[in-house]
Specification:
heterodimer, A: about 290 residues, alpha/beta, Metallo-beta-lactamase, Chain A, eight-stranded mixed β-sheet, five-stranded mixed β-sheet, 8 helices, B: about 140 residues, 4 helices, about 0% strand, elongated
Chain lengths: ~290, ~140
C-alpha cells in the first residue's frame, strides 16, 4: 500500500561538535559528534502537521551561537520552503516536550493547533512555585514561551492531552512518556498504512533518544538500551519507553527517528540544501514528488 | 571589557534579575492555567503569595543597587521590568482578568530580555544541561 503520509526530517540548525557524553549516558571523554536540530513534517490525508517547531532565533539565537556553538539557524519559512510548504499552512503541531528548542518557535505557525501533554504544562507551572534552589528543574524553559502558550490557549489553539491519544489525525497517535526526559514528554507514532496493527509504523521520539546508541547500544550484535544524557525523570522510565517505542515499530530501531541523529542521512534518502541544511525523506505519499532527488 | 565595579554590580544583581524572571514565570504559569480553564488559577493560588514575596525581595535589592556608568542601561531596564511586573502582580491579585495581567507582564519580560542583552551574566533561559547546553 502507498504510504498515507509523506514524512520529512528537516534540519534547521546544528552544533558541529557536541560532546557524546551529553547524548549517550556514560560516554565521557569520547569525543564529539554533530548534533543537528530538526523538526518533522507529516503531509498527507489532507493534513499538514509537524512534530516540534524549533527555537525562536530572536530570543535565543545570539546566545546559542556565541556561547553554545549552535550554527546555521534558518527560519521555518526558508526550511519548509525547501519542500514547498509554508508555515502558515501547517494545521497541527505535536510538541514532544516544552524545552525551548522544541516549542520555542510557536509564533511562526499562526494557524496551527498545538498538542502537548497536560502533565508537561502542569508540572512546568508547579516547578515555578519552588524555591530558587530547585531551578535545575526549570532548565531549558523559556518564560516567554509560557506567555505565548497563554495566547494559544485563549485562541483555542492549545490542546492539553492527558496520556495517550489514538488517531489524533488518521493513523497518527500520541503516546505519553511521563517522567522521562521531562515530566510530560510524548512521542508520536505514524501508522503509515493506517492499519490498527500497522506493518509500516514510524516513531518520532523527540529527545527520548538522541542517537541510535540509546536504542541499540554500541554493539549491534548484542543490542541494549543506553539512557540519554539528560533526564528530569528517571533513566528507568527512559529505558522502558525505548522498549515500548522499538516494539511499536516491530523491532526495527531505524524506524524510531531521533531528530538529533545525524546518521539519518546514511539510512534514508537525503539532500543538503544550499544553506547547508539536511532534508531526510522517510516516506512519500501518493501524488507527492521526492524532495531529495 | 567589564571593569571591576561593573563586575561587582553584575554579581550583586543576578539574584534580583533571577527573582524578577521567576515572578514573571509564575504569573505566566498562572495565566496558562487560567486560559486553559483551570479552576486553580484564581487569586487564592499559593504561587501568587510566593510571587509577591519574591517580588518584594527583588524591589528591595533594586533599591540598594548602585549601577556604574557601564551598567546604567541594564539598571534602567531592570527598573522598568520591576515596574511592569509589579503592575501585573497587582492585577493578578485583584482578579483583573487575563489581559490586565498579560499586557504588563509581557512588557516587563521584554524589559528583562533587554536587560539581559545589555550586560553579560544574565541568562534569559537556563541553557546549561539542556540538550544544547554544553559550552562551545
Amino acid at each position: 500500500m502507498t504510504p498515507a503520509y509523506s514524512l520529512w526530517v528537516m534540519e534547521y540548525a546544528a552544533v558541529p561538535n557536541y560532546p557524546q557524553s551529553g547524548l549517550i549516558y556514560g560516554m565521557h571523554n569520547q569525543g564529539t559528534r554533530k548534533l543537528p536540530y530538526c523538526y518533522i513534517v507529516i503531509k498527507g490525508q489532507g493534513q499538514l502537521a509537524m512534530v516540534d517547531v524549533g527555537y525562536n532565533h530572536k530570543a535565543h539565537g545570539e546566545m546559542l551561537a556565541n556561547t553554545y556553538g549552535v550554527r546555521g539557524w534558518h527560519p521555518p519559512l526558508e526550511v519548509l520552503g525547501e519542500i514547498g510548504i509554508k508555515p502558515q499552512d501547517v494545521s497541527n503541531i505535536f510538541i514532544t516536550h516544552c524545552h525551548f528548542d522544541h516549542m520555542g518557535n510557536i509564533e511562526d505557525f499562526p494557524k496551527a493547533t498545538f498538542y502537548l501533554q497536560e502533565r508537561e504544562l502542569s508540572k512546568w507551572v508547579w516547578s515555578m512555585s519552588l524555591h530558587r534552589r530547585f531551578r535545575w528543574l526549570m532548565l531549558g524553559i523559556d518564560p516567554a514561551d509560557i506567555m505565548r502558550a497563554v495566547d494559544l490557549a485563549r485562541q483555542g489553539r492549545l490542546v492539553a492531552v492527558e496520556g495517550d491519544r489514538e488517531n489524533v489525525l488518521p493513523g497518527v497517535d500520541l503516546h505519553a512518556a511521563f517522567d522521562t526526559h521531562t515530566w510530560g514528554s510524548m512521542y508520536v507514532t505514524v501508522r503509515n498504512d493506517l492499519a490498527t496493527n500497522s506493518q509500516n509504523s514510524w516513531v518520532f521520539c523527540g529527545d527520548l533518544a538522541y542517537g541510535y546508541e540509546n536504542l541499540r547500544g554500541h554493539d549491534p550484535k548484542d543490542p541494549e538500551y543506553i539512557p540519554i544524557g539528560l533526564a528530569t525523570g528517571s533513566q528507568f522510565n527512559v529505558i522502558m519507553t525505548a522498549e515500548e517505542m522499538v516494539k511499536s515499530v516491530g523491532g526495527d530501531v531505524h524506524r524510531v527517528i531521533p531528530p538529533h541523529e545525524e546518521r539519518l542521512k546514511d539510512l534514508y534518502p537525503s539532500r543538503i540544501t544550499k544553506a547547508g541544511l539536511r532534508i531526510t525523506e522517510l516516506a512519500l505519499a501518493d501524488g507527492d514528488t521526492s524532495q531529495v532527488r | 571589557m567589564i571593569d571591576d565595579a561593573t563586575a561587582a554590580y553584575i554579581l550583586e544583581n543576578q539574584k534580583c534579575f533571577e527573582d524578577l524572571k521567576q515572578v514573571a514565570s509564575q504569573l505566566a504559569g498562572l495565566l496558562v492555567l487560567a486560559a486553559a480553564g483551570s479552576k486553580e488559577a484564581g487569586p487564592d493560588h499559593p504561587m501568587l503569595e510566593m510571587a509577591g514575596r519574591l517580588f518584594r525581595e527583588a524591589q528591595d535589592a533594586l533599591r540598594r543597587s548602585r549601577p556604574t556608568h557601564r551598567a546604567k542601561r541594564h539598571y534602567e531596564h531592570l527598573t522598568s521590568a520591576a515596574l511592569e511586573i509589579g503592575v501585573a502582580l497587582k492585577a493578578a491579585e485583584g482578579r483583573v482578568g487575563i489581559d490586565g495581567v498579560l499586557i504588563p507582564l509581557r512588557a516587563g519580560y521584554s524589559e528583562l530580555e533587554r536587560a539581559a542583552d545589555s550586560l553579560p551574566g544574565f541568562e534569559k533561559v537556563s541553557y546549561q544541561r539542556a540538550c544544547c547546553g554544553v559550552r562551545a
